[in-house]
């Protein structure tokens, strides 16, 4: 569980570092949320 959270924080940090605009941040967060949702659906 701790490794999962650490990995998620690393991904979020990398995504925010790669964004140039507020709109880009929103898109990256949306894509990250979609990836998490997809993973959760597959785990069911």
UniProtKB/TrEMBL annotation:
<keyword id="KW-0564">Palmitate</keyword>
<dbReference type="Pfam" id="PF08085">
    <property type="entry name" value="Entericidin"/>
</dbReference>
<keyword id="KW-0449">Lipoprotein</keyword>
<keyword id="KW-0472">Membrane</keyword>
<keyword id="KW-1003">Cell membrane</keyword>
<protein>
    <submittedName>
        <fullName>Entericidin</fullName>
    </submittedName>
</protein>
<comment type="similarity">
    <text>Belongs to the EcnA/EcnB lipoprotein family.</text>
</comment>
<feature type="signal peptide">
    <location>
        <begin position="1"/>
        <end position="17"/>
    </location>
</feature>
<dbReference type="GO" id="GO:0016020">
    <property type="term" value="C:membrane"/>
</dbReference>
<dbReference type="GO" id="GO:0009636">
    <property type="term" value="P:response to toxic substance"/>
</dbReference>
<dbReference type="InterPro" id="IPR012556">
    <property type="entry name" value="Entericidin"/>
</dbReference>
<keyword id="KW-0732">Signal</keyword>
């Amino acid at each position: 569980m701790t490794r999962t959270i650490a990995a998620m924080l690393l991904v979020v940090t990398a995504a925010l570092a790669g964004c140039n605009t507020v709109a880009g941040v929103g898109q990256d967060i949306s894509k990250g949320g979609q990836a998490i949702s997809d993973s959760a659906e597959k785990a069911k």
